[in-house]
Structure formats: C-alpha cells, structure tokens
UniProtKB/TrEMBL annotation:
PANTHER family: BZIP DOMAIN-CONTAINING PROTEIN, CHROMOSOME 7, WHOLE GENOME SHOTGUN SEQUENCE. This is Uncharacterized protein. It comes from Trichoderma harzianum CBS 226.95. InterPro entries: DUF3425.
Amino acid sequence: MESRIELSAMHQLAEARDEDDNWTGLKDREARRKRQYRLNSRSYNGSTVFPLSSDHLIPLVQFNAFRGTLTNMMILSVTHLIPPECDITEALHSTPLFTPPPAPPPSLMPTALQQSVPHDTWIDLLPDATVRDNAIRTMHLFRAEDICGDMLGNPQQGRNTIEMNGVLVWGNPWDASGWEMTEGFLKKWGFLLKGCWEAMAATNHWRAQRGDEPLVFDVS
C-alpha cells in the first residue's frame, strides 16, 4: 500500500511575503528571531491597531506584555487606580485582552507581605508571589517607573525587542509559566528573581521553543 505524506503550509510562515521572511533553516539565532518577531508583529497588526500610538509599529511581544498587564488589572479590579496622567482610557476599551479565568487565580492572590506593607499597585499584577514579595522588600532600591518602563517597553525609543530589558508574554498573563524574561531584564532586575525557579524554568521553556540556548542565572 502506497503511503502518503500530506504537505501543508507552515502556520508560522502564514505572514511571509518573500524569502527574506523565511526563518526556517537559519542557524544564526539573532537573524532567526528578528524574522520571527517581524512575522508575529505583521500577523497581529494586520487585524488590530495598537491604541496607544499611530506613529509607531509596536512589536507584538511588547503589545502582549501591555495587554497582559491590562488583563491582570481587570482580574484584580484595579483599573480605577491607573493615574489620570497615564491616559490609557481608550486602551482599556479597545485593547483585546486575554480571556480571563472565571475567578481570580491563586497566582494573583495577595501574600501576607502584600497585605501588611504599603506598595505600588504594579507589584500586585506580577503573577509570581515570590517576585511580588521580593519587589516589596527591595522597592526602596529602584523607581517604579524604571522597571515598569523596561517591562512594557518604550515605543518612543524604537528599540528592537531583542535588545529590551523587558518581559515577553506567550501564555496566560496571570500564570508565571506564560512569561519569559529577556537576558537584559535578568541582568538589570535579577535581584527580584531570588527563589523564583518557576520563572526561570518558564523563561527557558519559551527560549527552547525558538531553538535558543537556556539562560543560566542563579536564583538561589
């Protein structure tokens, strides 16, 4: 009996326009990632206009971090705490959020430290209890706007995602396993990851999906 091999187009290349968009077979990691991010961004922006800027193309990965943060804010019912100067009212109504769980997940439930020590709201949005506690213990060492700017990126700077000191959201934003930290983030904010083995495992899981080498970072 003659066997058949069914051929179908790779969904990862659905947005490819020419050979320069084809990342399959590339051995150079930086070149491969640049093409992957280009296709992802083209795919998302083909149907959605980012609500915060009409002058800049926001990479998909940066947009996902933003919408993931908004999703966690909606889950915790804290959108009313957004400062007026942030001016993201339109974003709250026009950004397609991740489908939230029916009830607040355990990963976002406040720790004893959160309930006893005054702190900024952004800390409550982090999907890892240990990271949240670390942030509260060290919040006197850094400015909130610095880490928030790194995590979500700054479109006005036009930096490539690969060079960001930020985080990427590939799964549910209320689950630490859906987040990936960039190498730049670990170098700058690694002190927040003490005891966060799950966060490091998630980061290297997503890197492995792209064929990247795991990041080695001591979180003990």
